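Why run this: before we spend reagent on co-expression, it is cheaper to look at a predicted model of the complex and decide which construct boundaries make sense. The entries below are exactly what would go into the expression plan.
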Amino acid sequence: QKEVEQNSGPLSVPEGAIASLNCTYSDRGSQSFFWYRQYSGKSPELIMFIYSNGDKEDGRFTAQLNKASQYVSLLIRDSQPSDSATYLCAVKGAQKLVFGQGTRLTINP
Amino acid sequence: DAMVIQNPRYQVTQFGKPVTLSCSQTLNHNVMYWYQQKSSQAPKLLFHYYDKDFNNEADTPDNFQSRRPNTSFCFLDIRSPGLGDAAMYLCATSRYIGGIGQPQHFGDGTRLSIL
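The model came back. Tokens follow.
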């Protein structure tokens, strides 16, 4: 089992719809969870981070964390073509930040 | 603006010819990281510095070395690059304040090509 798993995608969503990205992790002791956006050929850009169970909202983005289910998700409301990118879930365990393989998201105009 | 700066953006070197990549930061973060990222793969941690303490990942090849002469600068040295070392190299920084991990902030990366 991979330490951090994401839907590989690609995920295609119409413009204006909600995009839902999912991530599961294996280390039950993990405490810090991050979502990064990465455009092709560019470096990862921090979108959201969440530490506590529940929802955290920032503009069109909502991160959701359920530690009992070892599950973290990112919702993007009112999706825009500029949201088209690869989204990396990253989980901080005892030692280091572990990245998922990423989900490629395409927003169709 | 506070930021993480990597130079150069693109580096071409010959097989076996040593190369150095640089990273500087104005965030005054105490932790600096080097990642290798190949196409369609997740970033892979090579090593990190917590202040001056160097932490090497177990599977990082000996061919890769790092130096951190001061808080602001960190270097990645590849002693004898092979074709398999062609990748994007990412520098990141974070604050460490114990316990919960702080977000890592990435530079723009250096894309390394091997001829």
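Chain A touches chain B at residues 31-32, 34, 36, 41-46, 49, 51, 88, 90, 92, 96-97, 99-102 (CB under 8 Å). The mean pLDDT of chain A is 93. Bring this page to Monday's planning discussion.
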